[in-house]
Amino acid sequence: MKRKITTIVMALLAVAVVSAQQVLSPNGNVQVIFSLDNGGQPTYSLLYKGEMVINPSHMGFELARDKHANKGMNETDLLTGFEVKDYKVTSHEDTWTPVWGQYKSISNNYNELIIDLYQASANRNMTLRFRAYNDGIGFRYEFPQQRDLNYFIIKRERTQFALTGDHRAWWQAGDYDTQEYPMQVTRLSQVRNRITACASFDKPGAVGKRRTDYTEDRMRDAVVWDNASQTVFSPTGIQTSLQMKTDEGLYINIHEAELVNYSCMHLELDDKNMILESHLTPDAVGNMCYMQTPCRTPWRTVMVSDDARDMLASSLILNLNEPCKIEDTSWIHPTKYCGVWWEMIVGHGNWHYTDEFPSVKLGMTDFNKAKPNGRHRANNDTVMRYIDFAARNGLDQVLVEGWNVGWEDWANMWKEDVFDFVTPYPDFDIKMLNDYAHSKGVKLMMHHETSSSADNYERHLNEAYSLMNRYGYDAVKTGYVGDIIPRGEHHYGQYMVNHYNWVLREAAKHHIMVNGHEAVRPTGLCRTWPNLVGNESARGTEYEAFYGSNPNHTVILPFTRFQGGPMDYTPGVLETRLANWSDNQHIVHSTVVGQLALYVVMCSPLQMAADLPQNYEKFMDAYQFIRDVALDWDDSRYIDAEPGEYITVARKAKGSDNWFLGGKCDEKGHRVDVRLDFLDKGRKYEATIYADGKDANYETNPASYTITKKIVKQGDVLKLVEVPGGGVAIMIKAI
Ligand code: NOJ
Ligand code: CA
Predict the structure, then answer these.
(1) 191: left (phi over 0), alpha (psi -120 to 50) or beta
(2) Using CA atoms, how far apart are residues 337 and 395, in angstroms rounded to an integer?
(3) Residues 362, 632: Cα–Cα separation, whole Å
(4) What pLDDT, on the 0 to 100 scale, is given for residue 636?
(5) Does 3.10.25.10 match the CATH number of domain 2-319?
(6) Which of 41, 338, 426, 429 has its CA 20 to 30 A from that of 687?
(7) pLDDT for the residue 135
(8) CATH of 329-386+395-537, one of 1.10.287.110, 3.30.450.20, 3.20.20.70, 1.10.3720.10
(9) Where does the chain hold its CATH 3.20.20.70 domain(s)?
(10) What are the pocket residues of ligand 1 if the criterion is a CB atom closer than 6 Å to any ligand atom?
(11) What residues are paired with 646 via a beta bridge?
(12) Distance, CA 56 to ligand 2 centroid (Å)?
């Protein structure tokens, strides 16, 4: 194999490059080769076990010809004409302790190649930093402070990922405002067909418009035209994290890490040459990023392995983020919650209090005089019922949505001052309910739907968080439904990235944990700000109430969306037939046991028990698993995994000898023999096995399951069978 690597380096040197540097991962499997091409443009390639994964790929930036950029910026892009001024290779090894997550401690071992570049024509310096880990690479651009590069505006980042073939891909249509599309499973060459089947593009560079001449399938289409804010930008635009698999069985995943003061990266596919290129989210005037040196971009990441399990076990994205910036993290804790939520999502109640007001003006609309509509769910009686359920059934918190005034006209009005986040509706007694909750050992969870008026949220933030402190809330679910204000900004642009990060920092000052819905997809920032305990940023369970998600959705998300951090997927709907208690005719595309498995398969310190108390009363034996399951782990062992098909994982509960095992599969079902070699030698355990019934099926018989107990020890083999749309959930308790 050594000879093969040498041959490739030699080939690169012979073809176009002026010079080449390289770095290998600690175990030698992952290799990055850097070079400048004839025109002095930076180029890198990536190899795994001697095989090419990313062909030589160009790097650099086109700059905006903009009066706000420094003099001199107008003439020269940061693309060509570079020379290598200096380079060095260093090694790094350390271990750190996450506040929560998959592992008790994480080793951060890499070799680093730092290339200092000089662009003589414009007298500019730029540094490229490549880190080679055993499971992939991260690289970023750095711009030291210098006389001739101060302010510059990025018009286009041109980081390429030249692929070696038309790989199979698990992907989502690129969009500046939403990540709530169905996941697609096709070869890359099919991306264009899938997107243009739903969207038409007037000319290159134009955003997509709804096609009227197609038969809509909202469970499967690449673009679904029902989001309150969406901007699909290209017939071949894809979101990250993008999971791929080569015909040779290599798994490749492209994402980014540490998205700070920059705009979110999508990928644009050149489907003739199979080259992906970074595509940043523009701002209201069409620029991508405003930079001032010293500064740097986020990391561009490529994970690679011939074992799918490594994609899930990897800590590469976390490792590339900065260490924790919160000194005292004692107030950050795993949280299991239920909520006054699913009934509204299903259509069995409202967020708004009255039907009398066509519009609300904060401070002027008097809700005390309004006639309640009788369907407002955030009322004292309902909330107390949820508190009682939480207190009796091992839940920490109760989320209440629709508690504060403004829901009468919150959506689609593009209204600036839509909520004040401090004024409750008349039927929500904030003091009494918090006192009641605390008296039972439970907390209320705050909800701040911003309706995407980021400006308004920032104006109210301090007061809103002070109110939370006053009443003893320590977690907030934020939301960004609708088009962004300031108008013209996108959910994933630099402006909003800075907003989300600022919210996180302000929340930390108030000792508040954040779970952001509709916010930008996470990029591992939860290492630095572990109060970011959750995000949505993909289709969660709520879509099951709108029209459904394929069973394979939940075994794609851990490979894609979860790469950057935990998701508030909101599992645990055990009454999967919504018509059994509401007028909603949809089903949740999972068996009951499949829902239980998600608590283990989807690693998150924040987990909802999404169903209604009265539905759980019908499934108390199965609910026991939701009550017992841990949310924070000392260890995680992936037993088998294939994107979109199945994931089986065993996790050891934090600070305990107990293990939990979760297996989830797609619509084809799955069988797996699990050898319990992770258990302690010579020790006995009691396994409580929640299994799909033999006759179970997510469509025809979701509620058939068995719960059995048996004594197990190290080396025993459990033969597990998951039915279509099903799963398995096991608690393994040390005796
Ligand atoms: C969309 C969120 O995903 C959902 O959870 C929430 O209930 C609504 N917005 C209202 O804020
Ligand atoms: Ca959402």
Answers:
(1) alpha
(2) 5
(3) 41
(4) 98
(5) no
(6) 338
(7) 98
(8) 3.20.20.70
(9) 329-386+395-537, 539-735
(10) 341, 401, 449, 479, 481, 517, 536, 542
(11) 642, 665
(12) 38
Span from the CA of 490 to the centroid of ligand 1 (angstroms)? 18
| pLDDT, mean of residues 327-334 | 98
Q: What is the pLDDT of residue 74?
A: 56
Whether 542 sits among the annotated catalytic residues: the reply is yes
Indicate which atom in ligand 1 lies nearest the CA of residue 479: 11
Residue with the two structure tokens 């949280």: 335
Q: What confidence score (pLDDT) does residue 2 get? A: 40
19 and 35 Cβ atoms separated by less than 8 Å:
yes
Which residue's C-alpha comes closest to atom 6 of ligand 1?
Answer: 479
Answer yes or no: is pLDDT of 30 > 60: yes
Closest of 374, 358, 364, 477 to residue 410, by C-alpha: 358
Residues 6+ apart with CB under 8 A from 730: 660, 661, 662, 687, 688, 689, 690, 718
pLDDT at residue 12, rounded to an integer:
44
Enumerate the β-bridge partners of residue 456. Answer: none
CA distances from 268 to 278, 488, 643 (A): 6, 22, 22
* Whole-prediction pTM: 0.97
580 CA to centre of ligand 2 in angstroms = 24
The mean pLDDT of the chain is 96
Closest ligand 1 atom to the C-alpha of 449?
11
The token pair that represents 569 in the structure block: 């997927």
Distance CA 113, CA 111 (A): 7
Pairing of strands 606-608, 532-535: unpaired
Inform me whether the pLDDT recorded for 6 exceeds 90. no
Hey, which residues does 672 pair with through a beta bridge? 720
> Which residue spans of the chain are classified as CATH 2.70.98.10?
2-319
The ligand that comes nearest to the alpha carbon of residue 537 is 2
Instruction: At 727, list the tokens.
Output: 């799963």
Residue 18 — pLDDT band, cuts 50, 70, 90? low
β pairing state of 42-48 and 51-58: antiparallel
Q: Which ligand lies nearest to the CA atom of residue 479 in the structure?
A: 1
Q: Exposure of 338 by Cβ count < 10 A (0-12 exposed, 13-18 middle, 19+ buried)?
A: buried
Gap from CA of 554 to ligand 1 centroid (Å): 19
Q: Model confidence over 647-674: pLDDT tens digits?
A: 999 999 999 999 999 999 999 999 999 9
Q: Which two structure tokens, joined as six digits, stand for 616?
A: 């759980």
CA pair distance 398, 383, nearest whole angstrom:
8
Strands (E), 572-669: 606-608, 633-642, 646-653, 659-665
**CATH superfamily, with its number, for domain 539-735:** Aldolase class I (3.20.20.70)
pLDDT value at residue 72 = 58
Contact between 223 and 232 (Cβ < 8 Å):
yes
Per DSSP, the residues of 285-342 read: TS--EEEESSEEPPEEEEEEESSHHHHHH--HHHHTSPPP--S--TT---EEEEEETH
Q: Residues 423-442: pLDDT tens digits?
A: 999 999 999 999 999 999 99
